[in-house]
Structure formats: C-alpha cells, structure tokens
Amino acid sequence: MALSDSVTTCLSQPVHYAICKLGFEKKDTYDINNILSGNGEVCWQAVTEHVCYLESDQSVDYIKSIRSLGPVCESVNVHFKSLTKEQFIIQYASWLHWTNCTEVFLEVFDVLQYTQTTEVALGLMKLTSCLERALGDVYLLKGNDCPFLLRDLLASKQLAVIFGQAVMNVLRIFIGSPYGLNLRNVLWHGFASPQEIPAKYCAMLLFLTAGLGQLLQTYLLQNKCILLHRPYVIFVSLEELDVFPDLNNETLSIAEELVKLSSFVLKTMLPFWIAALTAFKQSRYADSVILLLPQLEVGLRLLFTTTNKCPNRLLTAESSAFYTTFDEMLAKHLDNNEVNQLPVVLEEPAMEFLWDFLNHQEGPRVRDRLSHGEINLEAFPREVANQIVAFAITLLCRFSDENMFSLKEHTVIKPLMNCASCYQSRFHPISRLKKQVLECMKSIHLWSGLPTVSEEQVQTIKGLEENAEASTLILMISEITSQLVQYMPQNCCSSDDPINSVLTERLLTELCDTRVCTLYSPRPVLEIVVILRKISTQCHQVSEQVIAGAEVRYTQWVNKTLRSRQRHNYLRMLNSIKFLSPVLRLILILITVEVVSVHAVCKKNPFDYQQYLKFLKLILQYTENLVTYTSPEKNKWDETMELTNKALIKIRKISDRKLMLMHLAA
C-alpha cells in the first residue's frame, strides 16, 4: 500500500486530541444568553471567565481553557444555526465592517448552516486571513511596523491596550499560539483534513470577530480616531506569471481522475483537491488557490519526509519543535545541516517555480499574501490561479503509477508537462537583473530616433569644436569589447563594429536567454547581483534623462527660445550622446557577461572576490555620477565626456586583470 493511502491523519496525537476531542469533553449545555446581551452585544467578561491560568506564572492554561470553552463554542454554533441570513445580518453585520471584508464573514455564516466539512475548513482559512489583516490595521492605530506573524500580532501590547489582554488571550486559544488550537496554522500548512476541524470553532471565531468590532467601535469613539485600512496588494505584470496554457474543462476533468490515483495525494485530503478543482471551474479563483496551496504543501511534505528519511516530520510538530513547512522543504539544508534531498526528486525547474511563486521577494508570494489577508479575495486573478492549479496537475502526473500512462500522455496534459520541465526562474534577483538589462537596452535604442538639429545648423554655432577625445573613447570601447568576445555567442558581435546597436540588442537577448542556475545562489553571487542591478538602474535613469532632455531642448531650439549659452550646451549634449550610447551599451554587455559567468567564477580559487567587487563599484560610481551630470539640473556635458574618458581608462586597466581571472576560473 502506498504511503499516501496508509496515512490516516497528519495531526500528531497531542494536536489531534486538542482539536478533535478536548473541546468535547464537557457535556454541559451552555446558555447563549450568558455571553449575548439583550441588544445583541457580546458579553466579553462572560467569555473571558472561561480562560484558565496556570498557578505558577499566571500564563494561559491552554488545555483547561479549550476544555472550558468547548460548550460555549457549541452554544454559539447552535445559535447561528437558529438564525436566518437576514437575522444574522441585522444583528451582526455592522460589527463586522471593521474587517473591511464583511462579505467573507457572511459567507462563513452561510457555510455553517450546512456543516460541509471542506467548506467549513475553507471558511475558517478565509476568516483567519481576513481577521489577521484587520487586526493588523488596528495595530497601526498604536504601532508603526505591523508584525508579520499572527502569533506576534496577537501577543502585541498595542492590541492588548485596544481590546484588553483578557480578550487577546481568548483569541490566542483559537489562533496564533502553538500551545492552543492553532487553527490557522494547522489548516494553512495542510496538516488538518476536512473532518478534523469542528465547525463550532469556526462559529466561535465568527462570533468573536463581531465582538471585537463592538470593542473597537467603543475605542474609536472614546479616542476620536478613525481606523484606516491598508490597500490590498495587486498582482501587476500578470504576463510575467504566464507559464502554463489556459486550463479548460477537459484538462480539469482529467485532473479529477489523477487526484484519485496519484500517490502525491493523501487520501484523507482528497476532498480538498476535488473542492479546489471545482472552485476553479466555478471561477472562484481565490477559493481554489486557498484550498490547493496547503495540499501542495502536504504532498511535498510527504515527498520531503520520504526522501530525507524522516517520516515523523509528516505530522504536526508540538509547540516545542518546528513544523515542516514550505520554508524548510525548499531550503538547501535540513535543520541538522544535511543536504535536503527534495530538490533532487523535484528537480530544478519545479524548485524554481515554487521559489518564484512562493518565496522570492519580487515574486507574487501567493501563499504569504493570501494567508495574511493582503489580497482582495473577490478580485483574485484567474491568471495566477491557472498557474498554481496547472503546476499541481504536473505534480499529480509525475508522482503517479505507470498504469496511468494514458492520462499522463493525454494531449491536454503533455503541454503542461513540457512547460513545467523547462521552467526558468523569473523572480530570482538574477532573473530580475536580466529583465532590467533588456529594458534599459530598449530605452537606449530609442536614442537613434530622437529629434536632432541638422549638421548644417550645428556648423552655424561658432566655438563648438569636435571633441578631441572622441576617437580615443571609441578605441577604448572597442578594446574592452573585444576582450569580452570570448564570452559572447557567435554571430552577435561584429569585429568591424563591436558595439553596433542592432548587434548589441541581439547579443544581450542571447546572453539573457542563457540559462543560469539560480537555485541556492551563494551569498557572494547575490551581493554581486545587487551591485549589478544598481548599475543597470543608473544606466536606465541616464537613458531616460537623455531622452527627456533631448526632446525638450529640440522643441526649444525649433521655437528659438534658447539663449546663446543654452544653444551651445544643447549642441554639446548632442555631441556627447553619440559617444555615450556605445558606452552605456558596453556597460550592459559587461553586466550581462558578469551575470552569466558569476556562478562559475565565485566557485573557483583563483577568483579574487574583493577585487571583483572593487571593479563593479568603480562602474557603479561612474554611472551614479553620470546620472548627476546628465540630470536637467546639472546638464554638464563637457564634464560628462571627461568623466567617461577617465572611467573607461580605469575599466580597461582593471578588466584586463579581471577577465584573466575569469578565464582561469571558467
């Protein structure tokens, strides 16, 4: 029997007891009127009386508190079931407005009426996400930087001042503490199956959220302040996230068959997978991804614990140990410093996809942003959901029996597998650098189309002499470029004109298409890439300043609004641009050659890291000065040429030695 068939729970015995049994041990019926006043407000004092404390240090006794609150939660659940939707809205909706997502909480009420276990779990994940975001907004009434982790947020002095410490202790029994029920983490990290989450805890959190709204309203009135909500994160440049073909119903139907047969799926979690695919079909894209991400995590955890021979890590950790989550599974080393074997099994493209969509700071970080309430669930884009679901389907295929060959080779599945197998990182700093370089090149390419005065008009201005350093500049650029030829693709660099614009564009495109291993880049590489990105940014700013300045000055020239000195300076600008363009293109070539060879260089002994940094910082300083000189405020073109000449002399001198080191290290 496959391991995915034999696992009946991912909750360790103590955690399973706390969530599934402890709150059911007291059989007494609790009167809802004890915690609900006649005007429909939550009687917090009656709720907090159920929180028990240890005699030793007066910290919360989570075991006794969960046991005591069990009947209260059941009473709230029964109470909500007795209400119609209209009655619930009248009595509670206004107290939920502070969350800025009232509709989500109304959905949770609907779910509780039918007690479908999968929907209850989904509702609880959405509830905790929205509640965390709202509590973060409240925190900012008193504090500056909102804690990233829910447990730190709930333990903060700021929220204790606003809501009261006793109220925060109640919340921490349900979410945010590894010693309590910890419902948020248990669900979002894929440890709990649908049948293991009692609906009464979801009902209680809905009830408590309304109670928090009542307390907050009083606080805001007394302190004469307004609760402001942080704007949602919006996924921009969705085209960058376009990896897989658009999923159709035929693909999703095959996926439903794969789910039932794949060893990647724990059978206890099967309802989550089916619900996720159904949600996608129904255009509920946020729901689909919320359901699917924890299942990707538990499926990968199954692989992780198998390949690293630590089956005990499949279960929830106790409060004294670490959970096995995405963070650890995607890391290079285990907590005992042994090499993580999961990347060997998943292979580099899949690992890069996971890092891109979950971890890299400039990526979408889908799981973090969903679980911490940073995204408007109503506007979650199909494009993002499509990538997550498609990637999940490829894992279902890869980790399935050979007798599923017909499904894996289906015409709608094969394109997904092909896309997954050749995926390259798009959000690693190296990948972002490549994108920056190409965008900068496009900007510089626009220079050739800038409006300019005729040569005859230039000749009418007395005192403007041809720059004597021009030929020297071109010679130095050619010499440096020729040194780089050995690192360039063939047919992309002309010996007659090594920095020709069209060839440079083709060269940079080919260099940027070169696959570079980004997984687990060593620190020296990342430090170098930081500098290279700064250089690229400065070059782009210079280009934009030149474009803007040239267009403005040309208009002024045509309209004859330039004074004599300004006319001379404009013509100096035009003269400088002719030589500045190849210099910037040379720097872009240098950057790109550096990034495609930097991994190999950093691993070799002959490589002098400090000298390498010195070389790059020299270029950075030059480009920073260039930004200053070409700015509208300075507009110093003679100084720009002088600066460029000095910089090229230094670059040529240092690059001779550096390139020799690169050659030895390659």
Automatic annotation (TrEMBL):
Signal sequence extent: none
Membrane-spanning residues: none
Pfam family name, one: DUF4209
Residue stretches making up the DUF4209 domain: 131-211
Superkingdom of this protein's organism: Eukaryota
PANTHER family listed in its UniProt record: ENDOPLASMIC RETICULUM MEMBRANE-ASSOCIATED RNA DEGRADATION PROTEIN
Protein name, as recorded: Endoplasmic reticulum membrane-associated RNA degradation protein isoform X1
Organism: Pipra filicauda
Organism lineage: Eukaryota, Metazoa, Chordata, Craniata, Vertebrata
